[in-house]
Structures are given as structure tokens and as C-alpha cells.
User: What shape does this take?
Amino acid sequence: MAFYADTIEFHTKGEVDIKDITNDVVGIVKESGLNNGIACVFTPSSTSAITTIEYEPGLLRDLPDALEKLFPKKARYEHEMRWHDGNGHSHVRASFMSPSLSIPFVDGNPVLGTWQQIVFVELDNKARNRKLLVHLVGE
Amino acid sequence: MAFYADTIEFHTKGEVDIKDITNDVVGIVKESGLNNGIACVFTPSSTSAITTIEYEPGLLRDLPDALEKLFPKKARYEHEMRWHDGNGHSHVRASFMSPSLSIPFVDGNPVLGTWQQIVFVELDNKARNRKLLVHLVGE
Amino acid sequence: MAFYADTIEFHTKGEVDIKDITNDVVGIVKESGLNNGIACVFTPSSTSAITTIEYEPGLLRDLPDALEKLFPKKARYEHEMRWHDGNGHSHVRASFMSPSLSIPFVDGNPVLGTWQQIVFVELDNKARNRKLLVHLVGE
Assistant: This one.
């Protein structure tokens, strides 16, 4: 059993920028030399999320549309009343979507469905530099 | 410290078929011979999810009702405009609900609440064969 | 590689009581003596959730407001028709939000964003005693 850690860094364009980070995670599992285990992908942020999706242009519009319908940017947020940074909706969306995703890997590869990619979802209302953690445990 | 992996396979009836997989996960932890650790249950799919729920007939209707209210099947999805497979809502629901669940186990048993079962949620619009991964790390 | 486990116990005031458990998790990682790994925080319950949020008074109102808008307490729940315990909405909210959160730690500290705290969200309609599990794997 061993532990391995690395990070993924990139720039985002603000909301709702959805980044396909599958190849980054695949690369980190390969570099680790581990064959089988669990990979934890985490965004140390309260205005972004990690999930999986079929990364195709239709859904890259449907996911933001659903977020806007469920947590409208123009709704009243007490966060906005206090801090005036315009991202109350970003925080609420992030708490629902989760900053963390754990993915099994087998024979040196994360096991994903055919149409399933690992994505970072930028929920903040401005462009950001992001640094994700990828922690592996396995053998 | 050791690693152990197994899979769970079953057939679903299409949306929204909710399967109680608690006994499968309990069985895998027992077979592993591990006493204490973390179990990661993952669905390699972009149209299904893993969560927990009190598995009783009322909630087996309430969860689908909430999904339909929040992400209606008949809404417009760009995914549908491009691919015409009728499951745009399935993908968006799955990205919100998460394909992954990590559960602690103690003395050879997953630690769950009295009214808490581990469930697979089929969100796709057709019957599917599913194969979940269960990866354990512990001692 | 080693495994370490501890629990966090507290009392809640009922819905929607949001508890900042960051210091508890930080303390458990320190006591473990582990430097780098993954921490899994889990609530063994079908009416509560674990997530992260910026723990400030505005968002402590915005998150409950969003929950009420998306899963209204007064809506019809089949769970209520059968069990009459008044918490159908609590169960549905919990299944969406997830009972589990995995967080990487580095140099003996969970890695969180500047404005990101780990929180327990009480979704049940009454005051409860809660006991969370925190399971660590790492080195």
C-alpha cells in the first residue's frame, strides 16, 4: 500500500466554465506507479465543484442552465447583502454540488464510463486560477 | 493496510429505478477480511448515481418526484437537440447527484444509520445492465 | 501507510442547523500523527449531510432558503403519507446533498480554501444527537 499526491493547476473564465480534467487525473495515476486504489480529486474552494459528465457541447449548456434555474444569479442572497461580491449564488451552488469526488482506479487507470469525464465546474462569478489536489491510496 | 476490490452487477428497469445495494456492499467488506477502513462505491456512468436513503416505498416515489420537479424530462435540453437519445435530463440529474460515495467501515461492517441504505439510482431513460466498483482501503 | 479513526459528537437544534466541524476534523488529523492522505467524514443518517461552505451568517441563511425553495417542507411527500413523522423533505434533501465528504490532508492539515469550512447540515425536523465518523488513510 502506498500514497501519492499531485496537483492540477489551470485558469478559468468564470461562471460556468466546465473543465475536462480526465487526462490530468489519468496522468497522475500513471505517474504514481500504483495499479489499484482510490483517487480523491478535491477543489480547495467554496465556489467550485468536482463531478462527472459526458463532456459534449450540449450538456456544457444544459448544466449551467439547470444551475441558473435552480439557484438564479438574480435571486436575493444574504451573502450578497453582507459582502457585495456578487457571488452568493456561486457559494450555494458549490455547497450542493460538492468539492470532492472519489474515483476507483484499476490496472493504472481510473475506471470511467464510455461517456463519462471528470470535470471541474467553476461557479465563481469571475475568472480564477485554480489548483486541485489529487490524492491516491492503493497498491 | 491493504486494498481490496470487487464489483456489483445487476439489471435496471430504467428511470427512476432505485436499487438497495447495502447487502452487496456489506458482503464485499466481509469477504475482504478487512476490519476498519473506507469503502468507495462508484458507478462508471454519466446517467446514474450513488447515494443513501431510507429505502421505503414512500421515498422511492418522493425522490423521483423531486428529480422530475427540479430537472423535468420535458424541458429543453441542448443534449437532446444534438443526440436525440431522450436522456438530456438523465445526464444533468447524474452530474448533480454524484457517481461516487465513500463509506467508513468498522469491525468489518459499513457504518450506516438505522434508517439508511446505500442505493444505486438509475437515471437513464431505458433499462440498463450496470456494473459498480467497490474499492476498499483499510486494515 | 496507516489507518486512523475517530468520531465527532454534538447536539443539533433541528432544521436547518449548520455546524462548522472544521476544527474537529483538523484536530483528528493532528492526533492521528499522519502527514498526508485522505480523510472521509461521514454522517450515519438519512436526514443530514456533509459539505463545505464559507461559514458566514449570510450563507447560513441562503443555504436553508435554497433547500426550502427546491424541496419545500409543505409539499406532498409519500413518506409523510405513510409514516407521519413530518420529515419527508428532510430525507429527500439528504439524498441530494450526500452524507459523505472526502478531503485530502497535507503536512498534517486538511487542505481547504481560505473561505471554505467543513460543515454538518442537520436536515431533520427535530433536535438530534449526532455522531459522525472520520476515517483517515495515509502515511
Chain B has one domain: 2-138. The two ends of chain B are 4 Å apart (CA to CA).
